[in-house]
Amino acid sequence: MKIDLSSFSIVVLAKTHNPSILNPDFLKVNGIVEQNFTPFDVLCTPPASHVFYKEALSVIAEFERLQFIDEDRVRIPYDSPIPYIAIKYIDVLPHVRYMASGINFVGHYVFPGKDIASFFISNTFIKNGPWSVINGQRPDVGIKFAYNVNDILCNITIETAETNPGTIGAERAEDEYGDVMMDDLPQLNPVVLVKANYHLAAKEAEIKRIKMFIAKWYTYFEEFHNFLEGVFPAD
Hints:
It is a single chain. The chain has five helices and nine strands, in the order βαββββαβαβββαα. By secondary structure, the protein is an alpha+beta fold. A nine-stranded antiparallel beta sheet has the order 2-3-4-5-1-6-9-8-7. A hairpin with a 3-residue loop joins strand 2 and strand 3.
């Protein structure tokens, strides 16, 4: 089975971001976003700002959280510009009190039915017992794995979902807090949804460490991909 990766995002936490400075001109003049990118939805306010681009890329700023999101399924993850964009943003504003960063991947595997998808998860991870069937009904199962390796916290979740294959990338962001924004899904297909969050909690002003963490995003994706290959059968 092959994963359909729908979202690649990077989150940077700080004690005090300044959302009011985020706008297309700021990103363009400072060379943070490519000159030919076209913004189509822009909000600039003191508590929160965002810039959404037609190229399926967005930047969202709040007081404590900055998000860089890429939902171009052809481009992500290896050709995505968001690692560069996130690092460049930090370089332009080096005096912000950065505290942590997260790297997130969201994808799915298509199944012929929700019951089959749910059975796959339970059959793979859960031993049979009285909990397997209650009143003739199998449970809808979700699994979460948490690892802490070299001060990097990794959370991987596997769960059933029903989603429109054309809009699964509507999950604009997910960080360690599990915040997600979704569009309405008019036509639903059964999938197994997989998510990974890699989180670095740095000491205040450890900008270099945060940038190195972001720059190594590909090693975390490879770890996630290897994990999934061990779970989902090959075609």
